[in-house]
Task: structure prediction
Amino acid sequence: QVQLQESGPGLVKPSETLSLTCTVSGGSIRNGNYYWTWIRQPAGKGLEWIGRIYNSGSTNYNPSLKSRVIISIDTSKSQFSLNLASVTAADTAVYFCARAHVLGVIDYWGQGALVIVSS
Amino acid sequence: SYVLTQPPSVSVAPGETAMMTCAGSNLGTKTVHWYQQKPGQAPLLVMSYDFDRPSGIPERFSGANSGTTATLTITRVEAGDEADYFCQVWDTDSEIFGGGTKLTVL
Result:
């Protein structure tokens, strides 16, 4: 059973960088059939895809966030990470890491991590 | 960018059939996935590749996709089906989610 677990600060100051890490267990992060994905959800709202990374380090980002996002991967630690720069209150959300098949379906999700942007 | 449109809410009585729609341009040419999300939980995949039920999802759940609309149908609705349901496609290097439909079981 694949498991994903988000970790990182729950409070970030405006204009600073939000950083989260996702640790993958129960399956190999090197599996070439999957992308490793970040998705967020503001309270009471829908899901917003942030971006994804392949085991090679190749990335795709949401065009609306592309200028502020970097997703990286450390296969030796079975982890991938999200950095979102210059955050504002609008970036307050639950951030999910997830596994997405190369054909698009997202089959495993982390439990989610609430990040609040506030001074 | 590609847009998926879902009605904000659907209400049904227990035992009845709930139909949730997801509309998009030429959606029938794309592959649609559906997720169920209960309060405080991560989304759960309930339908993949238009009409494939993942292991553990009851047969009461079915999916279809044609033209401009995909549909997730739940027959013999139970109280435990009350949740938000999101549709999702992959389009031009981005995952796209619909805004979600809140299913209320009366």
In short: Chain A has a mean pLDDT of 96.
